[in-house]
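hey so u asked for the seq, here:
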Amino acid sequence: HTLHSLITILGTWALIQAQPCSCHALALAWTFSYLLFFRALSLLGLPTPTPFTNAVQLLLTLKLVSLASEVQDLHLAQRKEMASGFSKEPTVGLLPEVPSLMETLSYSYCYVGIMTGAPGPCC
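ran it, structure tokens below
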């Protein structure tokens, strides 16, 4: 069942890297589509996930959509900064940069975030 969470994370990370300006909508569609597939595994004749795996997959879906939203906000702030002639306004509450694959994996598998649904140290 770890493979399902990795597929969700890697797919979302790829969308964030490819389309940062519209990654929120893309990540929303991707993660919830995969969650639908994940929940329908028993209908396809595959082993039914455990309730704990279901909970982890749902929390990952919510965390990754939130992360994509933060990346999109960062991208829009950067575009606004470039359009305004590079006037550096304080960007309070934004990510400092687009997270790398390792940062995305660390954020996704943060124990506190998985068990409580709270954001991890990345954001």
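The chain is about 65% helix and 0% strand. The chain has a mean pLDDT of 83.
lmk if thats what u needed
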